Amino acid sequence: MDFKAINEAAEGYREDMIKFLRDLVKIPGESAEEGAKMDRAKAEMTKLGFDKIEVDPQGNLLGYMGTGKKLIAFDGHMDTVGIGEMSNWEFDPYDGYETDTEIGGRGTSDQEGGIVSAVYGAKIMKDLGLLNEKYTALVTVTVQEEDCDGLCWQYIIKEDGIRPEFVVSTEPTDGGIYRGQRGRMEIKVEVKGVSCHGSAPERGDNAIYKMADILQDVRALNNNGDTESTVIRGLVRMLDEKYNPEWKEARFLGKGTVTASQIFHSSPSRCAVADGCTVSLDRRMTAGETWESCLDEIRNLPAVKKYGEDVVVSMYDYDRPSYTGLTYPIECYFPTWVIPEEHGVTKALMETHRNLYGEEREGSKETIDMRKARPLLDKWTFSTNGVSIMGRNGIPCIGFGPGAEAQAHAPNEKTWKDDLVRCAAVYAALPTVYCENN
To answer: Which ranges carry the Peptidase M20 dimerisation domain (predicted)?
Structure first.
């Protein structure tokens, strides 16, 4: 394969990719409101001659190049988070800015830049005659990831009946190749009490005070060590082979965490004892942890057991309609996933990068020192659609995408033009490299 020609082809589409990304940035599109952005992406696929373009009932855009046997997918979510406090932005997030090296605007790193590179990576495959009977490239432009990561792929796999050989997530990776992430889940803890007049609180049973005890135990679960004498053994225990058969990958991904993220109460008035209190817990899970183990962990905290039937521990559900109006309910559970270093997909992506750019991360003048100080093969700190692709459904998934993790959800979000070009080249070459060896 002529890697130089692939690089040159990607460079030749630089300005087209930049224009496509600029157009996407100018269209607001938070979760469940991505319709106009999808129309723009569909138009780009049509212009570039994709062989088949579909929009499924949930609103995911599916663009196919080629008709070969193996289906190799490149995924990017079109939705963005909101802009937050406008005063924190130095420019209009939906107008953006551009320099010789950068593009700024909401969604540039998280993660419309990845969509742009994937669409043009597929175009390069077609231009250079890389498509053959061995594979078909599928670019998925997906919905509602920021609300409920992986929901879109659960629909694609279970309802559309699409199951690729493997999927490349185009989420931002700072020039690295990412082979996994910690999972997460959203836990609800509800506590019942008995109200009474605030002038005689001893007559009631204050649910807020009960919850205060429980939250102290939750904090200990996150902060404590794992010695035998510790009443509440901390989550760090999962990094120890004594407690976790998957300890090696757990050390690679990092320990799980738990924190209180929201709190609610019920009370007849501000002059009464609270008769109900609910907290939301954000639980990040490492290798070897499951939703069952995480719920049991909270249920077995001393304060939760102390209050017995007055405490209910459960998992949240998600059931918001997509921009098409379709509702696809799912539990708020986003499993940990990690693809082994020796897996054929990992090896193929590493080989592709090596042939195009060498053994180290690449970047702009602004990012290169930070990137080269990190290993090429690494992991995400945040969650991605891989939670359904590989976490729920066992389809191999790996990450390589333009932009930076630190730009995700941040004011003054930006990405780098060179990243768009490099990722398009890698995407174009990867299927051939994989098919030659698998």
So the answer is: 180-301
